[in-house]
Amino acid sequence: MEFLKILWDNLKKGPVTDAFPFGETYTPDRLRGRVEIDPTLCVGCGTCVHVCAAGAINISKFEDGSGFEITVWRNSCCLCAQCRHYCPTKAVTLSNDWHSAHRATEKYTQITRAKVKYDYCAVCGAKMRRKCSTASTPSIPKSTWT
Ligand code: SF4
Ligand code: SF4
Question: What pTM, to 2 d.p., does this model score?
């Protein structure tokens, strides 16, 4: 009858695993979750596109040439954080939001997007990207642009 006592004790203790999805669960501070792009810091250098082994990032220019859009496909992203590591302006962060479950019909909407407008030179009016605040900006070939 020892097992009945153990069974009763365990029933009294309740579930020992996380309550999720019926309740909150613990999320470590440094968990690598959804990729976020800060459009105020992104200079469109293409480094993140170049280092992303999953091919999850794309940069496309606006048709009128006034800027560009950077897109991260969350379903392709494997959360390796290489884009964050190599981004010269620290425009990439990985939030600790790991809630990525969605319906199959929503798979094409699982996207992080940032739109970046070019600035214009106050003297000559030429179109330019924001200046990178880091001296070690790597040189990325134009072929990484789409
Ligand atoms: S590496 Fe950083 S600055 Fe360069 S395009 Fe990607 S997010 Fe923008
Ligand atoms: S975390 Fe890794 S897989 Fe995801 S977008 Fe960045 S480089 Fe690509």
Answer: 0.77
